[in-house]
Write a structure and sequence with these properties.
It is a single chain. 82% of the residues lie in helices and 0% in strands. By secondary structure, the protein is mostly helical. It has a domain of 55 residues. The radius of gyration is 20 Å and the shape is elongated. The relative contact order is 0.12.
Amino acid sequence: MSKETLFALSLFPYLGFLWFITRSRQMPKLALLGFYGTLVFVAVTIPAGIYAQVRYGTSLANVDWLHGSAEVFLTLTNILIVLGFRQAVIEKKQAAKDISIPTQDI
């Protein structure tokens, strides 16, 4: 099996993952946006790889300005995922703190 075929097949589990986490409504919205951004990253990287091969005769990894641009976008999606989960953890801790505050008798 070629790496291109394996790459194409790997999209199906990821699409399933996105479908389930979207339907669950339990994923922090910012993190969900980051996961969808990762899918956009893949969609943009494929034409960029083709362009690198046609224009420069080499792979995307060897064309610094294209590869770097793609990696910046991937980094931004990863930041969204981390910030989304960070926000969820902070909210969960705050909710637990609000519940555990005992009332004082005066």
